[in-house]
Amino acid sequence: MGAIPPLPRPGRASLSAAPMGRALRGAARGAPLPLPPLLLLLALPRAPSDAAAPQSAPAGAAPLRCNVSLDSAPEHRWDAALRLFDPDFLRAAFFRILDLAVPEKVHAILRPIAEELAFSIHQEYAGEIRGLSNALGLNVGDGLLLNLAYEYSAFCTSIIAQDKNGNIYHGRNMDYAFGSILRKVTIEVDFLQNGKVKFKGTTFFGYVGLWTGQSPQKFTITADERDRGSWWENVIAGLVQRNSPVSWLIRTTLTKAEDFEAASFMLAETPIIADVYYIIGGTTSREGLVITRKRSGPEDIWPLDPSTGGWYLVETNYDHWTTPPPSDLRRYALLGGGWAQMPLFVEGTWL
């Protein structure tokens, strides 16, 4: 197997140059299948220590679905969802994840800092974390650390593609070191406002941010980790500056943005606590972007451009203009095939 070729770097494209802001339809134009919910496929665990994970329901079951009302007080938004789980299992699972993700000496330093931050950062999300922590008898600093630790422990792949009829498809997977635990706490959430679904997300119970979300008939978002140093260093540096955690910005964007263009600007320009890749899809032709983020703003914006052969974008955990290490072959399968060979472009079939 030959080396994986780097993709050409197109340079930073202007968001306004893409064909955004078109009237958004209720479904992808002419799609033989409706725009599917985003997929969260938790792969096999990478860490051998994961074998000692606490046990609960069978791991192969479909994720539980629950509602979270944005009209409720933040401290009580997750109360109904909490009743779907065994509290003892949740406590054991959360402590196991903290043990895996946070070195003991670092934990001792970060915990009191996190306790203070839990009362001074984004009030809605911090309120949700406080409510969950209180309900489960967890230290609120540990509750915040748990949320932040999730953000920097994943190897992910996101794909966004356009078929020959202009329909947009967006899918993803997530590979976690503690996957055998997270399979059992994966949930599909409908976030409600005024009694109606405002947006949807796939997440893990206890984690208030989103790495996978959909604003129905408007846009979809996924995020992939961009490794830039120890996650706790990024967390402290970013939160001291009052920047948004990566996954909280996704949720805020799903709450506030009314279309693909507005969502793209929010994801590109809002200061965040660490580097990341944001992948966003719309509902009309060419509405797809991979945004390579620094804390302060975009480093690169990579658009779908079927007119020049760019009918799909594949983002793993490396800058798309570079060559991944030989040990990581996730890009190879798609880059090794051509336009005509892909089943997405065969009439009546599905990628």
Automatic annotation (TrEMBL):
Source organism per entry reads Varanus komodoensis
List the InterPro entries: Acid_ceramidase_N (IPR029130), CBAH/NAAA_C (IPR029132)
Keywords assigned by UniProt, alphabetized: Hydrolase
Q: Where do the Acid ceramidase N-terminal domain residues begin and end? A: 65-117
> Where is the Choloylglycine hydrolase/NAAA C-terminal domain positioned along the sequence?
156-291
User: Which Gene3D superfamilies does this one have?
Assistant: Penicillin V Acylase, Chain A
Annotated protein name in UniProt = N-acylethanolamine acid amidase
PANTHER family given for it? ACID AMIDASE (PTHR28583), N-ACYLETHANOLAMINE-HYDROLYZING ACID AMIDASE (PTHR28583:SF4)
Single GO MF annotation: hydrolase activity, acting on carbon-nitrogen (but not peptide) bonds
